[in-house]
Each structure stands twice: as C-alpha cells, then as structure tokens.
C-alpha cells in the first residue's frame, strides 16, 4: 500500500441511503481471482442499461465526474456482503475517499485495509456535503480533517493504528507477523 | 466556515477504556460482570487493544470458499508465507458452483470459465497448503455456513471467521463468528489472528412464545424491521429470552444468520442443552468418554446474570406474525396481510417504484413468478420439511418456477431418505444440487428482469437475484404457500387446510 497523506479533489454525490455492496459491484462480477480491473464494474447496474449502453443520466457517467476522487454517499454506505471487491472496484474507478454519516463495519474495514479512506462525519456536515456536489475538498490524513473551499474544517476520526498505517503505507500483515512470539505463547497456553 | 467542532480529546476515548481482563490476571476483585461476547473476546486475546493498536484476536476456525479467498492465497504466495494452521481451516465450494448435476462425462455446467477457474484455484490452494476441502466428491460439500455446524466444526466458545458476511450464522452455537474481507482472510491464513477493535454489545430479548405457524424467519425479519438496516452497526447482538430458548438449532441459525442485515458484526445465542444435543455424534465433536468433559467446558460459555449491555431492546414474541419484505432492504418488513406503509422518504419511494407495488395495499395477492427455497438462511432439513409440509399433495401454480436447493450434500441425502424430494418434484418444483444458488445469483441461477421471486434467502437488494429482479424475503412455509397459490399468501391459510 502506498502512503496516503493528503490530497485534493472535487466531490461526486450519491445521496441514496443504504447503498449496499451488491449495488457497488453486482455478484456476477465476483468470479475473478485477482484484485485488479474491477473499476469498470463499479455501480454497473446503475451506470449501464440492460443493453450495455451507458445511462447518461447517472452521475458517474457525466463528463465532470471523471476526475472526482471523493464520493459523498448517503447514510449506511457499503452495507450487506463482505466482498472486498467493493472497495477494489471503487479504487480502480479512481476514488480515494468515501464520506458518509454512517458506513457499514465490514466495508469500512475493507476500504481502510486498501487505502480507500472511509470517513464518517456528523449529520450536519454530511447533509452540507450532500447538498454541494462538485465542491473541492482537501483531505488531510495526518491532521484528520477535511478542508472546505472557504477554509472551514470538518474533523474525522481515525484510530491511531489505521492513521499510521495509511500515512506510512504500512502493511498490517507485517505488523501481525511481528507479534509471532505472542501468538506462539497463546497457542502454547491453549494447546 | 466551521460545520461541526469535535472535541479532539474524544477521538480516542474508546481506546482508553481498559480491557476487562481481570480474569486473565487473576484479579477477581476488579472483575465486573461480563456478557457472553465479552468472555469470548477476552478468552481469545493474543494482545489487548491499546491506543496504538487494535486487539489481536486468535481465530479457532477459519472457513473458506472459492469467491473471497483466491486473492488472499495470492498474497501468501507473493510473500512466500505458509498457512499457519491448516488444521484450523476448512474449505468448501458453494458460491460459483452449478446446482445442476454433472453430465455423464463428469462435465459440470458452470456459468462461465471464470467460475470454473475460481473453483480450480481453491482446489489448488487447498492442495498446496494441506487444507481440508469439501469438494464435489465429498459427502459434506455444501454452503459454508451449513457444513461448519453439520460437521461439528462449529462449537461453543470458539472464534470463527470467513470471508462472508453471513458467518454470523455460527453464533447460534455460542461462538463469536463474523465475516471478514479478503485481506483479512490473508491475515488469518498467515497468522491465525485478526486485528480487531472491540464492538459494542446489544441484547435483543424475545419474551413470550411465538404463535402457531410463526417461525424463526418471521422473527428475525420482525427484529430487523424494528432495528432497521443499520440498527446493529458496530454491535454484536446477543439474542435472549424464552422464545429464543424454544427455537431449534436450525431456527437459531436462521436468526443469527441475518444479524448482518441489521448491520451487526455478529449474532450470538448462548449454548444450552438444545445445542449440545444437536452437536452430539457429529464428525468433529469429541465422542465417547471425551464427550461429557467437552460439554462441561461448553457449559461455561454463558454471560454473567448481571452483565450490562451497551444497548438492549425487547421484542414480544406474541406480536410476531408471518412476515415478508416488501422493499429493497431486509428492514422493509410487513405482515403479509397488512396494508403497506406510506413511503417516508426518497429511499422508500424508490423501493416502491422498483418493486412495482403500492403503499396502502397488502403484499398478499401480488403475483409470483419464481420461488426459491435455499441459502445459508433456510436450506436445512427442518426448512425443507417446513416447505414440504405445505407442498405435500399439492402442485405449484402453473406460471410459477420453483427451485429447492438443499444446503449440503448431507441434507440432500437426508431429505431424499425421507422422500422430501418426491414431494417437491411431484409438486412441480426443481430439486437441485447443494450451493448458494439464487441467493447470490452468481452461478447462473437467477430470475429474469422484472420477475418477482419469493425467496427464503437473506437479501432483497436491487438486482441481488438478477438485474431488475424483485425479491420478497419469506420463510420456507410462506415461500411454499406462495408457489402453490401463484401469488403472495399467508401460509397459515394453507396450513389450516392441511389440518382440516
């Protein structure tokens, strides 16, 4: 994972609540055995009609959506299936952050493991972001804030471990494997 | 502008709460009463949660299937790592596998070459790392959350994970069981451990008795309707009370299975005599003189009487009726005959549009195209008996297609021994090979755009059972009754006919 410190992007807004991981990537695209290349299936059944043509009404298909790296989504984003293909697809589609007032547990964990910032903000902040699509935000991981165009800041929570992992691009498996003596001690005590 | 100021000191509050590990250090004086979840958590701590790092939790059983594991094995290969505990790992084939039998030449009708390759990859990975795989030639292949308990691999007091959100099913045995992502599958393969932050606890008390003709599926839909889609987020639910105690193990699995549909990480039911009786004699459970001492150990997995939950809700079992979902999320629940609620927001309006139904009218009477009995929620022998009791001596409506997909090869054999398959076939339903099938609809078993499916599975999301497909979640009895009627109907009407 590459270190993630700060970046700036315009937002794309999907205001629906409860956008589940089947919506983010339908199950029929899960027969892959690799992590890459799933961006073209992101929100597939929203983006494309049954005949395969792009639905130009859908926000992700609009020309100005192309360089948006921040997704503002309705409450309870990422609910449902534990498929990590959901954050893989979003990252591959160019997103680097998802912001909502509530994000489902497994999706949030999967996203952060892959360097996709899944950030929870307060209701009032969320509702402002939903109402201002396309606004340019700066996200600062070290400072744990989102900077608005007028300089105002929205603070977000990240536990120390996740924040440090993101900032250093640290691999969590390396950290776990460094605990081997403790794991062996546990196994011996419970043998 | 300042939209919201947050006290930065609050940021790490949850990590400053000391672990309740008094028992581990023999410090009984400060030990406060603990819930079952807290006891399971404490007992599996390799290292406690601190400000700088989450807890490291030891995993007793790791279940694998073909869809969420290939990238995890690839990561192990990339790093040259071995699987730490192959003996604590159990694999099966269920999601991508066809439910039609192999041809005479052994060729299986996979939906695509990719699906076939995914299965082949798990087979190779299991062979390379010495992991037990329930392959097509196994007597025990089946849905991952059906075979774990069936083999007795799932046991009280364990921590159990799988790259699958319905891992919560195993909580029915008093185990801490939850779904994880593929990166975490890799962590567990390599270390048998997971980094976890301690969730909160939510007690759901179900007081009183369920009425006649009302089952576990009706109950859990009722509970999700009360909690809402995100009502359990960040929590582990413990189901308690008389109505829970009265459930069979199959019913308890149905309840715990759908905990995730309320956003909860896990569902738990403390083990009791029902649990022990169900597990006795199963393949991976100690037997002979080892059985009693084993049960004595399991009996200790109970929450303290005076333990405090972060949240508690109470449900009156007598209020539960046969339920169905009317919308596009499992929390959109209604009694079959009740007028559907007026939409409260854009989301519910969208759900009514998608489902092509109207508020103010009951779902009863809505035409049904397909009926699916199966999935990790409702594909066990008792579920199949429940559906067969309705179908016995009847035929499904002419315009309805019905699939019955047993949860495992063992269930298929048992059902056939009882002649249940004859009931299904005589009624005009299809009797398939075990697998996830139309619940996740990634193996080719799916409905056509616009069709309405009454399904015993767990998710009614838009497009879940095929693009544009409308899903109504229901119990096996309700699903079978709908197949017979050809429209949505309360199964109690047909059950009374049987009795009469």
Number of strands of chain B: 19
Summarize the helix and strand pattern of chain A as letters. Answer: EHHEHEHEHEEEHHH
Biggest sheet layout of chain A:
7 strands, mixed
How many H/I helical runs of chain B?
17
Shape of chain B: globular
Largest sheet properties of chain B: 5 strands, parallel
**C-alpha termini separation of chain B:** 71 Å
Tell me the β content of chain B.
15-25%
Q: Number of DSSP helices of chain A?
A: 8
**How is the largest sheet of chain B built, in terms of strand order?**
5-4-3-6-7
Strand tally of chain A: 7
Structural class of chain B: alpha/beta
* Computed Rg of chain B: 23 Å
Provide the CATH architecture of chain A: Alpha-Beta Barrel
* Helical proportion of chain B, percent range: 25-40%
pLDDT averaged over residues of chain A: 96
Walk me through what this model shows:
The complex is a heterodimer of chains A (191) and B (500). Chain A has helices spanning 21-24, 44-47, 85-92, 105-113, 123-131, 160-168, 172-177, 180-189; strands at residues 6-14, 70-73, 97-100, 117-120, 136-140, 145-147, 153-155. Chain A is α/β, with parallel strands linked by helices and 191 residues long. Chain A has a single domain, classed as Alpha-Beta Barrel (Aconitase, domain 4). Chain A is globular, with a radius of gyration of 18 Å. With 500 residues, chain B is of the alpha/beta class. Chain B has two domains: 11-321, 2-Layer Sandwich (Aconitase, domain 3); 323-499, Aconitase, domain 3 (2-Layer Sandwich). Chain B has helices at residues 13-16, 36-43, 70-79, 113-129, 144-150, 182-191, 216-227, 242-245, 249-257, 273-279, 291-299, 346-355, 381-391, 409-418, 420-427, 476-485, 491-499, and strands at 45-47, 55-58, 61-64, 89-92, 132-134, 159-162, 176-179, 193-196, 200-207, 235-240, 266-268, 311-316, 323-325, 333-335, 370-373, 401-404, 430-431, 452-455, 470-473. In chain B, the strands form five sheets. A five-stranded parallel sheet of chain B has the order 5-4-3-6-7, with helices on both faces. In chain B, a hairpin with a 7-residue loop joins strand 13 and strand 14 (333-335). In chain B, helix 7 (216-227) packs parallel to helix 9 (249-257) and helix 13 packs across helix 15. The model of chain B is unreliable at 1-27 (pLDDT under 50). The interface between A and B is large, with 65 and 75 residues.
């Amino acid at each position: 994972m590459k270190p993630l410190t700060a970046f700036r992007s315009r937002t794309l807004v999907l205001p629906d609540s409860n956008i589940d991981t089947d919506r983010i990537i339908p199950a029929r695209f899960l027969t892959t055995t690799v992590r890459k290349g799933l961006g073209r299936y992101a929100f597939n059944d929203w983006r494309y009609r049954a005949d395969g043509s792009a639905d130009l009404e859908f926000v992700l298909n609009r020309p100005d959506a192309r360089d948006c790296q921040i997704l503002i989504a309705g409450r309870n984003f990422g609910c449902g299936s534990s498929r990590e293909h959901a954050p893989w697809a979003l990252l591959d589609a160019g997103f680097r952050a998802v912001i909502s007032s509530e994000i489902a547990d497994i999706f949030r964990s999967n996203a952060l493991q892959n360097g996709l910032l899944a950030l929870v903000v307060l209701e009032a902040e969320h509702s402002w972001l939903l109402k201002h699509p396309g606004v340019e935000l700066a996200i600062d991981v070290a400072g744990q804030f989102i900077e608005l165009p007028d300089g105002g800041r929205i603070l977000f929570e990240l536990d120390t471990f996740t924040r440090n992992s993101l900032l250093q691009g640290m691999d969590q498996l390396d950290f776990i494997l460094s605990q081997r003596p403790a794991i062996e001690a546990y196994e011996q005590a419970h043998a | 502008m300042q939209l919201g100021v947050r006290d930065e000191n609050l940021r790490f509050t949850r990590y400053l709460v000391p672990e309740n590990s008094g028992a581990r250090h023999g410090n009984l004086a400060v030990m406060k009463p603990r819930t079952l979840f807290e006891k399971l958590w404490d007992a599996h701590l390799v290292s406690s949660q601190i400000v700088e790092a989450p807890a490291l939790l030891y995993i007793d059983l790791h279940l694998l299937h073909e869809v969420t594991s290939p990238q995890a094995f690839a990561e192990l290969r990339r790093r040259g790592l071995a699987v730490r505990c192959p003996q604590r790992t159990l694999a099966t084939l269920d999601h991508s596998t066809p439910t039609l039998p192999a041809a005479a030449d052994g060729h299986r009708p996979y939906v695509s070459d990719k699906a076939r390759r995914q299965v082949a990859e798990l087979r190779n990975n299991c062979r390379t790392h010495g992991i037990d795989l329930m392959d097509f030639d196994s007597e025990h292949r089946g849905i991952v959350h059906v075979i774990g308990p069936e083999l007795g691999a799932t046991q009280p007091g364990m921590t159990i994970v799988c790259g699958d959100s319905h891992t919560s099913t195993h909580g029915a045995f008093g185990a801490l069981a939850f779904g994880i992502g593929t990166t975490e599958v890799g962590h567990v393969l390599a270390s048998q451990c997971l980094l976890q932050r301690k969730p909160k606890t939510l007690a759901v008390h179900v007081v009183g008795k369920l009425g006649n003709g009302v089952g576990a599926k009706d109950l859990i839909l009722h509970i999700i309707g009360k909690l809402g889609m995100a009502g359990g987020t960040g929590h582990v639910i413990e189901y308690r009370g008389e109505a829970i105690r009265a459930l069979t193990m199959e019913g308890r699995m149905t309840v715990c299975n759908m905990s995730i549909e309320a956003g909860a990480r896990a569902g738990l039911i403390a083990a009791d005599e029902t649990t022990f009786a169900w597990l006795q004699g199963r393949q991976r459970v100690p037997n002979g003189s080892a059985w009693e001492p084993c049960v004595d150990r399991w009996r200790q997995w109970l929450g303290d009487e005076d333990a405090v939950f972060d949240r508690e809700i109470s449900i009156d079992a007598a209020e539960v009726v046969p339920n169905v979902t009317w919308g596009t999320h499992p929390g959109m629940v209604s009694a079959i005959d009740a007028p559907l609620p007026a939409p409260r927001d854009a989301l519910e309006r969208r759900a009514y549009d998608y489902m092509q139904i109207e508020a103010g009218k009951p779902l009863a009477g809505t035409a049904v195209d397909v009926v699916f009995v199966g999935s990790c929620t409702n594909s066990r022998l008792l579920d199949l008996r429940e559906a067969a009791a309705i179908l016995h001596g009847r035929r499904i409506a002419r315009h309805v297609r019905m699939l019955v997909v047993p949860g495992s090869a063992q269930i298929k054999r048992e059902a056939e021994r009882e002649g249940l398959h004859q009931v299904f076939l005589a009624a005009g339903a299809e009797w398939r090979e075990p697998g996830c099938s139309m619940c996740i609809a990634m193996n080719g078993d799916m409905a056509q755009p616009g069709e309405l499916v009454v399904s015993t599975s767990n998710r009614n999301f838009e497009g879940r059972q095929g693009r544009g497909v409308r899903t109504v979640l229901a119990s096996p009895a309700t699903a079978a009754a709908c197949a017979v009627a050809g429209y949505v109907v309360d199964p109690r009407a047909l059950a009374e006919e049987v009795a009469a």
